[in-house]
């Protein structure tokens, strides 16, 4: 198999710090193999896959070297570490050591072929092996990038061919219909694993976005057959996560026929679609509990969308005499919500207002527009806001809570879903990929005390609910 990295064998003593932010030394080890992108170390029993570590070593004749890494693989022979945050200085230091320790017989490090004619390029794989050239690293990176571009383009061709074969199977009815979803899932998973690896190896977001765009163009004839995938690629409302798309996910019913039916089913069964349905149910439960414990509470629903959560709790709204202000910048969403809630008998307790929630970072303006509130929430809007802006908004929202008031903020946890599902198969990259520690950092920057925060998850565990109480 062709290797994309330049590596050399080594026996270099090293120190592993697994909690390197606090400087805790965990274990001494040895680097057995070293490359520009990673290393292979002697096995360390206490480390786990995907764990972040720091590797410290002294490279003979070069000097001290430190680099952050992530454990990709662990087996009885050792652990494979992928370097992250590699700066240009570290890259040059690594290359100096690797170059000095490559085979003097000019064996190609990519395919292990012997270069008997002493040429600048390997006769077998075509990669540049003129290691003495000052331009080698630049050439190496360009060649490697092209190899990964070829990799994802080949994966795209393979996916297209498999879809064509599957559609022929559906038309001929040569496979039982209940087997089709499983086959489709395998086709999608196989491609998405390759897309994930491509993104991991390339890292250049502009290149990744360009290849995603090309993929969308090349596969539009496939995914446009499914109503949901097509909508989540074209966004006819003009923005990501519009109320009509989410309503389709809530209803959980395929809207297309033929291949499109199975594509709709795949979209509805995806990790986030399941989590979003769970999110609305959990939000209903939280709101119901809050309303039952309050009298005439004032509620602010930010980026309200279709207001689906309010339909099921209409009796609790009436009983508590809650006053709920629903905000959205989409007039269609407000009209839809009004029409839906018209038949529940709660319109007297509701107000709908067109408002751009991005203005809510200013405390004085927000207080003037909406006053203080007992409950403030949004079903999914916060996922779409940059962290620094979100910290300012949460600071404002926390300040306009009445004593004992609650801010309800659900977030998608990127560790619990695969972003490539939504960046490649659909064009849904508006929501940001954040982890639990990122959310905690946002609250800290917002000046919200940790003691005010409680958290829980919806049934699938993908979406975290933070409930923040004004102390």
TrEMBL record:
Q: Could you tell me which residue ranges the Methyltransferase domain spans?
A: 299-405
Concerning Pfam families, the annotation shows:
Methyltransf_25, PilZ
Q: Which Gene3D superfamilies match?
A: predicted glycosyltransferase like domains, Vaccinia Virus protein VP39
- Report the residue ranges that make up the PilZ domain in this protein: 6-98
- Per the UniProt record, the source organism is hydrothermal vent metagenome
What is the phylogenetic placement of the source species in the record? Answer: unclassified sequences, metagenomes, ecological metagenomes
Which SUPFAM superfamilies does its entry note?
PilZ domain-like, S-adenosyl-L-methionine-dependent methyltransferases
Query: What GO molecular-function term can you cite, just one?
Result: cyclic-di-GMP binding
Q: What is this protein called?
A: Methyltransferase domain-containing protein
């Amino acid at each position: 198999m062709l290797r994309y990295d330049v590596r050399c064998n080594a026996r270099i003593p090293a120190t592993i710090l697994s909690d390197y932010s606090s400087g805790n030394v965990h274990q001494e080890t040895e680097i057995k193999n070293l490359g520009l992108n990673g290393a292979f170390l002697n096995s360390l029993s206490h480390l786990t896959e995907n764990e972040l570590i720091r590797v410290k070593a002294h490279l003979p004749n070069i000097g001290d070297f430190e680099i952050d890494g992530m454990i990709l693989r662990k087996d009885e022979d050792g652990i494979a570490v992928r370097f992250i945050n590699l700066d240009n200085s570290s890259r040059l230091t690594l290359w100096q050591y690797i170059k000095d320790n490559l085979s003097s017989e000019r064996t190609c490090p990519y395919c292990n072929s012997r270069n008997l004619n002493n040429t600048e390029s390997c006769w077998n794989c075509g990669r540049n092996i003129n290691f003495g050239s000052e331009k080698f690293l630049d050439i190496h990176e360009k060649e490697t990038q092209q190899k990964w571009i070829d990799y994802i383009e080949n994966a795209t061709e393979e996916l297209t061919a498999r879809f064509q074969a599957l559609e022929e199977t559906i038309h001929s009815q040569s496979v039982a219909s209940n087997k089709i979803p499983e086959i489709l899932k395998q086709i999608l998973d196989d491609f998405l694993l390759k897309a994930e690896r491509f993104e991991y190896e390339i890292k250049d977001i502009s290149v990744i976005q360009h290849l995603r765009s090309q993929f969308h163009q090349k596969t539009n004839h496939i995914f446009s057959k499914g109503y949901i995938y097509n909508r989540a690629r074209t966004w006819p409302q003009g923005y990501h996560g519009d109320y009509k798309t989410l309503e389709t996910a809530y209803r959980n019913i395929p809207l297309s026929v033929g291949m499109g039916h199975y594509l709709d089913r795949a979209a509805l069964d995806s990790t986030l679609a399941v989590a979003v349905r769970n999110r609305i149910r959990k939000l209903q439960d939280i709101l119901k509990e809050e309303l039952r414990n309050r009298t005439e509470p004032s509620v602010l629903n930010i980026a309200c969308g279709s207001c689906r959560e309010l339909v099921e709790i209409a009796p609790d709204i009436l009983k508590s005499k809650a006053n709920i202000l629903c905000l959205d910048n989409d007039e269609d969403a407000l009209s839809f919500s009004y029409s839906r809630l018209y038949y529940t008998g709660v319109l007297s307790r509701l107000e709908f207002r067109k408002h751009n929630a991005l203005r809510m970072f200013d405390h004085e303006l927000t207080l003037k527009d909406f006053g203080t509130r007992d409950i403030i929430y949004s079903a999914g809007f916060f996922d779409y806001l940059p962290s620094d802006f979100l910290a300012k908004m949460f600071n404002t929202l926390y300040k306009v809570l009445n004593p004992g008031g609650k801010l309800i903020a659900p977030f998608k946890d990127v560790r619990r879903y695969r972003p490539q599902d939504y960046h490649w198969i659909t064009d849904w990259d508006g929501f940001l990929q954040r982890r639990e520690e990122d959310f905690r950092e946002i609250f800290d920057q917002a000046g919200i005390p940790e003691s005010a925060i409680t958290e829980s998850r919806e049934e699938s565990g993908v979406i975290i609910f933070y409930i923040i109480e004004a102390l």
